């Protein structure tokens, strides 16, 4: 300890000065031996040890008792001025020191006071002496006096006073100022923490609001948590309870049969059949048969007896797991069947449209040749007109595209429609527009089979379709034997991928050699605004003008193309933005300069074994027009009406063209009802041909 070292050095120094050699410091040791018991008894008697801080010394008190005089007499020559100042400063902060004071206040949590509450300490035994009432009362009163002197946080109250050396001592202004500054810092920190909590809460609320905006109630349908019937926890509880009873009864039938309880087994089977008849196809309590409550009660009684006789927790859990696995397998099978049927429905033609095509074809070939000619054929190659290319085998869809375009344009007489169809629908397409001409607009219908230059020696797609490998892929290999088999690749076996009408878009300069610019339209679009402004759009040397479809991480090149192939990895950016077919402006002059058709042939030849992409026209289009596509404003072309139920209605309203890309085409029964009206308003359902084929709105 520092004091001990000081004493030893002082004693030793005295000896060295006297020249006595290395003799032990006897006098300081003797002083310590005498002072130790005195200090102990003095503190045990709760005697305060007043300590002065400066040259006034230890005799500052006027009437010290004999114990204090003796202690002061022996301590004064030993303690240094620094030690005295340190003890004095501690005394001013915490009051006069005594062992009882330390016991009652525990100034530091790290101090361990042995023998608290012990009256007698002996060398061999420690006997605990119970405290009487007067002792407890004295200590409590002393503690309350000290507590009034100390403020919050263990600090002295700024208004409290200490008695030191018989004089009242008041905290200095500097100490009070420091205490106030500490309190202000604590308050400031508390305010900052509360503010941070408020900001975090606001951020969480805003994030929750943004997530809620993404959820579309139209997608949730009748299972939306916001429906009124979901507010009641007991809504349709009878239906759910009866279905649960049927599930438990099936479990008990297995257990009853395994334990040879045939009587209970038959009773359970009978109850299951009766409950199933009562529930039927009901989804709500209102749909239940009037006998349902009786059946439910009877089933409950049977289940109660079965539980008493057969219940085995482990066996029940095992059967529930088996039923869960079976239900999961059924769901997966139904999903595959749904995919198969949706693809099948998407590539079929409704009976009404097939009827319309057949009737029109018959009437067309009954016309004399001179009545099969369209008027204003001189406008077909005029550079002063607005030219559209439309390739389709659907008469009704083509009529909607033409009618919607003409009805929303300011100068119909300046618009020319170039229609190309197949041999089967050539007569029907001609007959429809001969009977229903699009106002003063010009229209011309061609047969794709009349393009003699479009043959397998020139067109890679035709050559590939004639190959044995492609025939094997389409007609033999992996051919589904059930509804659920082969559904994953069914999308790529759609007949539209086999039709040259779908690939004719890569041969526009050959089809229309005398035109400089043309607007390509798909047959599943509806025009809502005048499109003449598209001919004045500066493509900036590019060939294709289209609306980009990429978002943060979707509809980019790597979604459509196989970038594990080195040819694609070296020449294209997988994060390049995709764009959409359906409404495209093509500069045919630049097309010819850059040999776009030759680029298409190059990539199509490299994909003969379908290693670059599966099938379709968009992947080769992305490759062919790479860095040759000018992005148009998104309001020109809004997509997704054939698969996305959550398109913003304002986007649809402001769009120049809306596109039903996807399986839910507007002429199919599986079309989304809320989008179908945009398409049906351009059809005259009172037309004799439409009415005769029972096409209804």
From TrEMBL:
GO biological process: cell wall organization; pectin biosynthetic process
GO cellular component: Golgi membrane
Sorted UniProt keywords: Cell wall biogenesis/degradation, Glycosyltransferase, Golgi apparatus, Transferase
Molecular function via GO: polygalacturonate 4-alpha-galacturonosyltransferase activity
Record membrane topology: Single-pass type II membrane protein
Enzyme class: transferase
Main location: Golgi
Pathways involved: Glycan metabolism; pectin biosynthesis
Protein's name in the database: Hexosyltransferase
Natural source organism: Zingiber officinale
């Amino acid at each position: 300890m520092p004091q001990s070292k000081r004493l030893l050095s002082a004693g030793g120094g005295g000896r060295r000065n006297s020249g006595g050699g290395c003799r032990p410091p006897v006098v300081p040791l003797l002083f310590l031996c005498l002072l130790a018991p005195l200090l102990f008894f003095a503190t045990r008697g709760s005697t305060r040890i007043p300590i002065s801080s400066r040259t006034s010394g230890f005799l500052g008190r006027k009437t010290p008792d004999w114990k204090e005089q003796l202690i002061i007499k022996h301590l004064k020559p030993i303690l240094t001025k620094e030690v005295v100042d340190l003890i004095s400063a501690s005394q001013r902060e915490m009051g006069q020191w005594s062992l009882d004071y330390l016991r009652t206040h525990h100034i530091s949590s790290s101090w361990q006071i042995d023998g608290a509450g012990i009256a007698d300490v002996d060398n061999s035994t420690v006997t605990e002496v119970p405290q009487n009432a007067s002792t407890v009362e004295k200590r409590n009163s002393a503690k309350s006096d000290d507590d009034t002197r100390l403020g919050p946080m263990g600090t002295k109250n700024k208004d409290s006073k200490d008695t030191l050396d018989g004089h009242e001592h008041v905290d200095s202004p500097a100490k009070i100022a420091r205490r106030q500054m500490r309190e202000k810092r604590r308050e400031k920190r508390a305010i900052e923490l509360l503010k941070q909590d408020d900001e975090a809460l606001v951020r969480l609320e805003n994030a929750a609001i943004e997530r809620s905006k993404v959820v579309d109630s139209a997608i949730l349908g009748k299972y939306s948590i916001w429906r009124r019937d979901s507010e009641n926890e007991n809504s349709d509880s009878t239906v759910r309870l009866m279905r649960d009873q049927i599930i438990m009864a099936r479990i008990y039938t297995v257990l009853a049969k395994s334990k040879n309880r045939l009587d209970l087994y038959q009773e359970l089977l009978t109850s299951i059949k009766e409950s199933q008849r009562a529930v039927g196809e009901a989804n709500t309590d209102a749909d239940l048969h009037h006998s349902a409550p009786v059946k439910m009660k009877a089933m409950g009684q049977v289940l109660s007896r079965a539980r008493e006789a057969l219940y085995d927790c482990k066996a029940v859990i095992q059967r529930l797991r088996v039923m869960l696995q079976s239900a999961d397998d059924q769901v997966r099978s139904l999903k595959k069947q749904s995919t198969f049927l949706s693809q099948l429905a998407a590539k079929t033609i409704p009976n009404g449209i097939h009827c319309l095509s057949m009737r029109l074809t018959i009437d067309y070939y009954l016309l004399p040749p001179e009545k099969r000619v369209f008027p204003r054929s001189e406008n077909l190659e005029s550079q002063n007109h607005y030219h559209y290319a439309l390739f389709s085998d659907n008469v009704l869809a083509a009529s909607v595209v033409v009618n919607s375009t003409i009805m929303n344009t300011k100068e119909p007489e300046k618009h020319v429609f170039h229609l190309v169809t197949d041999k089967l629908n050539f007569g029907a397409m001609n007959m429809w527009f001969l009977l229903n001409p699009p106002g003063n607009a010009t229209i011309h219908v061609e047969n794709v089979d009349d393009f003699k230059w479009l043959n397998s020696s020139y067109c890679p797609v035709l050559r590939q379709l004639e190959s044995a490998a492609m025939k094997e892929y389409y007609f033999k290999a992996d051919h589904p034997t059930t509804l659920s088999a082969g559904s994953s690749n069914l999308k790529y076996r759609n007949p539209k991928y086999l039709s040259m009408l779908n690939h004719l878009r890569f041969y526009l300069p050959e089809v229309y050699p005398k035109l400089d610019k043309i607007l390509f339209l798909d047959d599943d679009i509806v025009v809502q605004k005048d499109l003449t402004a598209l001919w004045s759009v500066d493509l900036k040397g590019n060939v294709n003008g289209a609306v980009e479809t990429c978002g943060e991480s979707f509809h980019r090149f790597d979604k459509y193309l196989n970038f594990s192939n080195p040819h694609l990895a070296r020449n294209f950016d997988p994060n390049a933005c995709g764009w959409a077919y359906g409404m495209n402006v093509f500069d045919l002059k630049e097309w010819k300069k850059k040999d776009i058709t030759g680029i298409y042939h190059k990539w199509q030849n490299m994909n003969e074994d379908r290693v670059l992409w599966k099938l379709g026209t968009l992947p080769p289009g992305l490759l062919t027009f790479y860095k040759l596509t000018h992005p148009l404003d998104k309001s020109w072309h809004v997509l997704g009406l054939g698969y996305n139920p959550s398109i913003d209605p304002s986007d649809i309203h402001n769009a120049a063209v809306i596109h039903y890309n996807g399986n839910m085409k507007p002429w199919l029964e599986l079309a989304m009802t809320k989008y179908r009206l945009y398409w049906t308003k351009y059809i005259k359902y009172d037309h004799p041909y439409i009415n005769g084929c029972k096409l209804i709105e």
